[in-house]
Amino acid sequence: MTSGRNQMLWRAQRLSAHVLGLLVLVHLVLMVIAVQGGLTAAEILSRTQGAIGWLLFYSSFVILVSAHAPIGVKNILQEQFGWRHSTASRLSILYGLALVVLGLRACWAVFTGGQL
Amino acid sequence: MKNEVLEVAVWRGDTQGETQTFEVPRKPSQTVLDVITYIQRELDPTLSYRFACRVGVCGSCAMVVNGVARWTCRTHVSKVVDKAGRLEVLPLRNLPVIKDLVTDMAEFFNKWTKARGYFSGDQTRHDDFATVRPDSPHRLEVDRAIECIGCGVCYSSCDVVSWKPDYLGPAALNRAWALVNDERDQAQSERLAQVLSEAGCTACHTHTSCSKRCPKELAPTSSIAGLKRMVGRAS
Amino acid sequence: MRSTRAVFRNDARNRTDVGYLAFALHRISGVAISLFLPLHFLLLGTAITGEPALQAGLNWTLHPFFKIAETGLVLGLALHLALGIRLLIIERTGNIKRHEQWALFGGAFALSAALLFALSMEISL
Known about the structure:
The complex is a heterotrimer.
Chain A: H1 3-34, H2 41-48, H3 52-81, H4 85-112
Chain B: E1 5-13, E2 17-25, H1 32-43, E3 62-65, E4 68-71, H2 77-80, E5 86-90, E6 97-99, E7 102-103, H3 106-114, H4 137-145, H5 153-157, H6 159-163, H7 170-180, H8 188-195, H9 209-213, H10 220-228
Parallel strand pairs in B: 1-5
Antiparallel strand pairs in B: 1-2, 3-4, 3-5, 6-7
Chain C: H1 18-45, H2 51-59, H3 64-93, H4 99-120
C-alpha cells in the first residue's frame, strides 16, 4: 500500500468517526425512547414510513459506517490474525459492500414499509 | 517480615532457553542491576547483560522486570519484589535475543534511520547561525521530544511493534516528530513519506504503554498524535 | 525490517493500565458491532414485505436472552463512541495528561447508557 493510500484510508476513518459520533449519540437517545413500553413493528414504521428525514439520516449513517467499520476490520485482520494487506483489504472491502447494500435496503424497507 | 534472600529467575539462552533461578542476599536500597551484577560476579560468570553508567543516564541496562520494561539501575528491588521474595528478569521484548539479557538492537536503530530520525541541513559553517526562538511553538514541541536516549523501553513495551514487524515504533516516530518541528531541516517530505506510511504513525493505536513506561517521562503518544495531524496535509 | 530470528512478546503483565484497557474495550466493542450490523440490517430489511414480516422478526427478540444481548450491544456501542471520542481528543490535541480520566469517564457514560436502556425496556415475563 502506498503512503498516499494509507493516508486516505486513515483520514476516511477519522472523518467518518467525527460524524458518526453525532449520529450514534442521536441513535442511542432514540433507542432509549423507542424501547419504552415495548417495541413493535407498527411503532417503528409509524415513525419511519414516508419520512424523508429519517431516510436521509439513516442512509447517511449506513454509508459512513460502511466506510468506517471495514477500515478497522482490516487493521484487526492484519494485527491480530497476521493476514497480509492484500487479503485483509479484499475481505474488508467485501464486508463494506455487504454493509452498504444491506443497510440501504433496510433504510428503504422501513421507509416504504412494504407499501411500494 | 522482610525476606533475607531473593529468588531471582533470569533468562538464559537466546530465543531458545529458559529461566534459571538464583538466590541473592537481600540488601537495603538494592536495585535490580545490583542483583544481576551480584549473580554475574559471585554466582555465575557466564551470565551476559548490558550496563554502563548504572546511575540512570545512559539507558543501557533496560530489561523486563516482572513483565514490565524498566531501567534496572533505577528499579529498587523493594518496589518490584513480591511477598515471597521473587523477581523475574528477562531481556527486552520485540528484539532478537543474542544471549541471556542482551538483545540485538540493530532493528531498533535501523527503524530510527528509516523514519529519518536524523537531521538534514543545507547550511555550512560559513553561513550565519539559524535563529530559532526557544519559546516558539515548534521549538517547544522539539523540547518535549528531544531527550530520548534510545534505551528501547518504549519499543519493548509496544504491542503494535509485536503485531506489525515493520512498524517504526514509538522511539523512531518520537524523534521524527522532533525533526518535523526543526525549522532548519530540509528533508521533511522524505521524512513524512516514511512516517505517514503504513509502517508509520497511523499504525499507533494509542495503547500509551510507551508514554507510561518511558524512564525519561517522554510521551511518544503525543509525538505520534502530532504526526497523525499531518496526515493528508503533506506527503 | 524485522530480522528473521524470532522475538519475544509481552504478556498480560504489560497490559494492566487504563490506556491499554481502553484500547482493548474499544477494539472488542468495534468487533461486536461489526458482527452485529449485518444481522441488524437483515432484520430491519424484512419490513420490505410489510409490517407483519418485521413484527415476526422482532418477536424473536422478546426472549430474555435477547434483552440481555441488546443491553450488551448498547453498552458496546456507547463504549465505542465514548472511547472513540477520547481517541479523537488525544490525537487532535496531543494531550495525554488526562487520558486515563477520560477513559474512566467514557466507561461511566457507557454503563449509564446501558443501564438506562435496560430500565427502559418492558420486561417480558
